[in-house]
Amino acid sequence: MNISTVLFDMDGLLLDTESVGIKVSIHAAALQGIAMSEALHYDTLGTSYEETAARFLSVHPQMDMARYREDYVRGLRDWVLNKGVPVLPHAGELLRWLKARGYAMGLCSGSDRELIELYLRLADFAQYFPVIVAGDDPGLNSKPAPDMYLKGAQLLGAQPGRCLVLEDSPNGLRAGRAAGMRTAMVPDMIPYTSELAPYCDAVLDDLSAVPGLLEPGACL
To answer: Is residue 10 included in any domain, yes or no?
Structure first.
């Protein structure tokens, strides 16, 4: 079936913000005297703040999550305002290519809407996403549940079977597959393994390979 809609994750797919987020998160925890490991963050990549908070508290029950969130969001905002948003290779080229060919596009990210809108504005990507589904939107379960991608398709008037989900994280791939959509992985911090095969139709070196998936006759 032809793909008419492309739904994007953001952190680690369009923007090189996963590693920045982990560094800022570790610093926010350290302000409370908590030594948080990078490994703990990998389980939460792509999920909402609520899912992340639950995972953090299961390991560090003494953490003040309200204080952590305030320090984390402020740290991210200060970082990107001072240094800019790092854009991953071929992200802008792909967005322009899709728009020129009439594909509908939406963004489904576990980050808070405030940060998403700031990042997209700084990267000059906001124009490509008439629909944004954010991790703090009410009434939606976090990835790997399908809710965010189903909501994105609904807002765009798209059939799930005609949507392609682009993701870098296992949680996001599982969400796209659970939504009944085609999925492609562009690995970032977590590499592709055979365990992800049931949730992944294609694995790409970078975003420049996406147009090849959408050409007539492509096996997607």
So the answer is: yes
Domain boundary among 63, 83, 103: 83
Give pLDDT, residue 50: 87
> 205 by DSSP, 3-state: which?
coil
* 71: amino acid identity, one letter: D
How much is the pTM?
Answer: 0.92
Average pLDDT across each block of 10 residues of the chain; the chain has 220 residues. List them in order: 92 94 94 95 85 94 96 93 96 98 97 94 97 96 96 98 97 97 96 96 97 82
Cα-atom radius of gyration of the chain, to the nearest Å? 17
Q: For residue 40, give the 3-state DSSP assignment.
A: helix
Whether 180 is in a domain gets the answer yes
Domain count, the chain: 2
- The reply to whether 133 falls in a domain is yes
End-to-end CA distance of the chain: 8
Clarify whether residues 119 and 72 are in a common domain. no
Residue 219 confidence (pLDDT): 65
- Give yes or no for a contact between 29 and 76, defined as CB atoms under 8 angstroms apart: no
Which strands make up the sheet holding 104-108, listed edge to edge? 131-133, 104-108, 5-8, 163-167, 182-185, 202-203
Please give the pLDDT value at position 176: 98
In a domain, 219, yes or no: no
3-state SS class at 144: coil
Whole-Å CA distances, 180 to 1, 19, 30, 204: 13, 29, 40, 20
Nearest to 110 by CA among 128, 88, 137, 85: 137
Angle between helices 18-30 and 65-83 (to 10 degrees): 130
